[in-house]
Design a protein that fits this description.
Elements: H1 2-30, H2 42-75, H3 92-121, E1 128-135, E2 138-143, E3 148-151, E4 153-157, E5 162-168, E6 173-176, E7 183-186, E8 192-196, E9 202-207, E10 220-226, H4 228-239, H5 248-259, H6 262-265, E11 289-290, E12 295-296, H7 299-307, H8 309-312, H9 325-336
Parallel strand pairs: 1-5, 4-10
Antiparallel strand pairs: 1-2, 2-3, 5-8, 6-7, 9-10, 11-12
Helix pairs in contact: 2-3, 5-9, 7-9
Bound molecules: dinuclear copper ion (CUA).
């Protein structure tokens, strides 16, 4: 009796673990972003459908094989440990049939994968071009037809295809926004093409998907999908020259920016700052985040970043500049004014 109770407790424990695993998995799926199982683009949907198709086939195979295995183990187990079961070489008909069935299953998966790749690989002819450059550790987005360069936040109009030309300034990175489908390596000296189209307005999170150094995990990005009208407004604002500082503190910040190392690495259109190493800051105040999506773009966070960048993004190429608190406050006022 005690043995039966012990066995029941064992099964209950395994049952709980068995329920926990799909529970955790489903919770992950339910999270709004980012998941390839919550697609918001035609390409993402095609990929998610392919995933479910392959998952159902393989889950069916798993259930079938495990059922037959359990049946064989229980039905043909040795009841008397001293008798040797009859030794046979096998069953030709069974072996041929399960080999054929496996080959057919793989052929179907191959054909469906091929079909999805063919249907989603070529960008539509009217796609808006954007050049994506991966840097250690941030993303640069250049809209060649619009004359806009920005960082870490790709803004695109809803329902319109975008053709991304993906490359890198240093090591191999990988551009990946799970809900929009596709993933593309960013390779120095090479241009790979990936296209996107988002059908639902919103903010979609992305992440560099290729180990690229100490802050690989901190190399995030966002895609802001907005209405056509909002996109036009954004384009006009981004094309405008940088705002002139008006407040005395912001004017002081401008002086600090132009006299310190900042100018060597950053561009602010219409000013002497024309550096190309770090992100273009012409409209940095209009972005929702700073430091490759690590921090909300608030004055407090900007001050933290300016005080000690490597403390927030380990390995950051922007060093600790040794700015005084007064200089930091002035810079925060200036940079925040660059809407
Ligand atoms: Cu860039 Cu990982």
């Amino acid at each position: 009796m005690a043995r039966i109770r012990g066995a029941a407790r064992g099964w209950a424990r395994w049952g709980a673990v068995g329920l926990l695993i799909p529970g955790v998995w489903l919770t992950g799926c339910a999270a709004q972003s980012p998941s390839i199982l919550a697609p918001v683009s035609p390409k993402g949907r095609a990929e998610a459908e392919l995933f479910w198709f392959i998952f159902l086939i393989t889950a069916g195979v798993f259930v079938l094989v495990e059922t037959l295995l359990l049946y064989a183990v229980l039905r043909f187990r040795a009841r008397d440990p001293h008798t040797v079961p009859p030794q046979i070489h096998g069953n030709n008909a069974l072996e041929i049939s399960w080999t054929t069935a496996t080959a057919l299953g793989l052929a179907v998966i191959f054909a469906m994968t091929w079909r999805t790749m063919a249907a989603t690989s070529a960008p539509p002819a009217d796609a808006m071009p954007v050049k994506v450059t991966g840097h250690q550790w941030w993303w640069e987005f250049e809209y060649p037809t619009l004359g806009i360069t920005t960082a870490n936040e790709l803004v695109i109009p809803v329902g319109r295809p975008v053709r991304l030309t993906v490359t890198s300034a240093d090591v191999i990175h990988s551009f990946w926004v799970p809900q929009l489908g596709g993933k593309m390596d960013a390779i120095p000296g090479r241009e790979n093409t990936l296209w996107l189209q988002a059908d639902v307005e919103g903010v979609y999170h992305g992440q560099c998907a290729e180990l690229c150094g100490v802050s690989h995990a901190n190399m995030r990005l966002r895609v802001r999908v907005v209405s056509d009208a909002d996109f036009q407004r954004w384009v006009e604002a981004q094309r405008a020259p940088a705002a002139q500082p008006v407040e005395p503190l912001a004017q002081q910040g401008y002086q600090v920016f132009m006299s310190k190392a900042c100018v060597g690495c950053h561009t602010i259109n219409g000013t002497p700052a024309q550096g190309k190493v770090g992100p273009n800051l012409t409209h940095v105040g209009s972005r929702t985040t700073i430091a490759a999506g690590l921090l909300e773009n608030t004055p407090e966070n900007l001050a933290r970043w300016l005080d000690n960048p490597p403390a927030i993004k380990p390995g950051s190429l922007m060093p600790r500049l040794g700015l005084t608190p007064e200089e930091i406050q002035a810079l925060v006022a200036y940079l925040s004014s660059l809407k």
